[in-house]
Amino acid sequence: MAEPAAVEVLADVHRGVGRILLNRPKALNALTTGMVAAIDRALAAWEDTPLSAVVLASSNTKAFCAGGDIRTIREHSLAGNAEASERFFASEYRLNARIAEYPVPVVSLIDGLCMGGGLGLSIHSAFRVVTERAVLAMPETGIGFFPDVGASYFLPRLPGAIGMYLGLTGHRLDAADALYTGLATHFVPADRLDAVRDALADNSGEAVDVVLNRLAGRSPVAESRLAEARGDVDWAFGTATLGEIEKRLRHLDTPWATATLVALESASPQSLEITHALLARGRQHTLRECLGIELALTRTTIRTPDFLEGVRAALVDKDRTPTWQIVSRGGRTPRPDHFRHEAGHRRPAHSCLGKHSPQRVVSADQVREEADRIEADLAELGVWKDVKRPRAYRERPSEACGRRCCPRQSVRGRGKPVSWRPCSVRSRRARRRKGDRRHGRHGAGPRGTGERCARVGRGWAPPARRRSRSVGAVGRRLRRRRDRPWTRRGSGRAVGQFRVTS
Question: Cα separation of 273 and 280, whole Å?
């Protein structure tokens, strides 16, 4: 092996086990383009080698990997060298996919800090071993970025709404929380890590999980604080919009909800919108598709003022007071907690991936133009087939019925929808004037021509057939009842043509 002080990644094969050691302690093993390339070369060279396992670990106990070298990426963006940043992200995501699809079991020994890109290295491994010193998080929204390295794939697949909670807030997980969520598979005390390496090397045909189970310590999953707040997490973050999430957190009025609100309000509004849209769609895509979507977004996100400002406040000046970009709505600047929205109003659209100064107020039209350009770029890549505009850039439905649209019914009300249109196309007075009886009561049909949709479900409600008031029509109905007495309603038994009631 090469001199440890001169090499940032140490890779060798020892007794049938591939070993990769991250060795950049001064930067907490933050990944660079060279480190990613070295790990990828080692894994590619070992694909045809008969190995029992590949162990990925750190040379120090303070950090497993603190993520990518974001400070260098910011410098590239300021210098206009976007190609260097794109090469880094492309190689990093390619490495994540290789680890996930590797034919040999990869064991990540997470001892210390593991964030961002470090979580991307470990989460795609077959086995994730944590110690009592492990701390896991995806804090990208706090620096004007979004959870990447496949986070749009694995976060939506966590239990309940935990993935959305972790992605939006950047909440830090300890070993117990990591085991509870499934981000970690085994718990081993830190003083037994050397024994784990030796046992894997001395393995004589024994499965890797059997070896890990034999050396694992008592699982601290029962001490998970996230498990205690699971009900509140699912209720608050299991909604469709950021505004509803904030509303439910304020309704809870607990210390956990207060801390969560503080985390959301300190994050970049642009990052919150992007993260929410990515995680909402991530369950529908494969890992490679999610990585392709994230790569397309990084190409423009790293040029945004929020990213440059967030990295400056967190890693360069370290003043922790970023000035996020504010987007105007209707010519006025929204209030500081501008990710909120009230019922009946469209949520404020935030500038997504545009070149604007942090102090400049951007119009909503510019935001829509940027969103259209992003959608076109994603469509060209072919990885996002069903590109839809995020909720932040779509008009909200009218509050006339509380639904996006309502099915129109045939004039006779036979219960067969013939077309769809918004319920508020015409006013209630116009529908009454024209005698439109094709909507339910929530659509303001005349004289209560239909049942309320909520009583039937989410579908349509067949309107009642309007009866004529003419004398001839009344006579026809009476004769029809006389000739067909079985159609008359009532209790009792039928005798001849009449029904005898008790």
Answer: 11
Residue 36 host element (H or E)? helix 33-46
330 as an active site residue: the answer is: no
Active site residue 234: no
CB 8 within 8 A of CB 22: yes
Catalytic annotation, pick one of 140, 177, 289, 306:
140
Give catalytic status of residue 117 as yes or no. yes
pTM of the predicted model, to two decimals? 0.66
Task: Please compute the mean of the pLDDT values over residues 415-432 and round it to a whole number.
Answer: 44
Cα–Cα nearest to 138, from 109, 173, 110, 108: 173
Domains of the chain in start order, with CATH, are: 9-281 (3.90.226.10), 398-483 (no CATH)
Q: Is 240 helix (H, G, I), strand (E, B) or coil?
A: coil
Catalytic residue among 18, 68, 150, 354: 68
Q: Which of the residues 117, 118, 243, 450 is marked catalytic?
A: 117
What does the block give as tokens for 246? 């904030």
Angle (deg, nearest 10), helices 162-169 and 255-266: 50
Helix (H, G, I), strand (E, B) or coil at 363: coil
The 3-state DSSP class for residue 320 equals coil
What's the confidence (pLDDT) of residue 97?
96
108 close to 58: Cβ distance less than 8 angstroms = no
Respond yes or no: is residue 369 known to be catalytic.
no
Q: Span 470-483, mean pLDDT?
A: 65
Active-site residue among 148, 174, 246, 309?
148
